[in-house]
């Protein structure tokens, strides 16, 4: 395996997903690609959306202009750069995408010739989440590229 693509969302567990994906890539001496997908701008203005990982105490999502796709792209790039710095590898490639979560992840993995996609599953009951139609489930069923799922249930 030469390329590991790690798909990250803004959930606080994204750091765990990035660290495990990075360790997997390091064990295989593979290139790392960090990816974040921006979907419908209305999604980010919902009260249910969680703060951006890595911004705790310095920049929460509620400080980002949610009515501007440009500001969301900027915040997403900053998020991925923060994660890249945390992992300590300047060679990590970062990509911010716009569109459907699962489709964007699958299409980018194909374009980047990723050998494996690393994603988290936030469900307390992972099987229940997979059966009910999560982004991870859609990628699992629609991608020809192997998927490494990191369980991220909250303790």
From TrEMBL:
Superkingdom: Bacteria
Gene Ontology CC annotations of this record: cytoplasm
InterPro entries assigned: Rossmann-like_a/b/a_fold, Universal_stress_UspA, UspA
Compartment(s) where it occurs, according to its Swiss-Prot or TrEMBL record: Cytoplasm
UspA domain residues: 2-151
Sorted UniProt keywords: Cytoplasm
Keyword Cytoplasm found: yes
Keyword ATP-binding part of the UniProt annotation: no
Family: Belongs to the universal stress protein A family.
Name listed for the protein in its UniProt record: Universal stress protein
Species the sequence originates in: Labilibaculum antarcticum
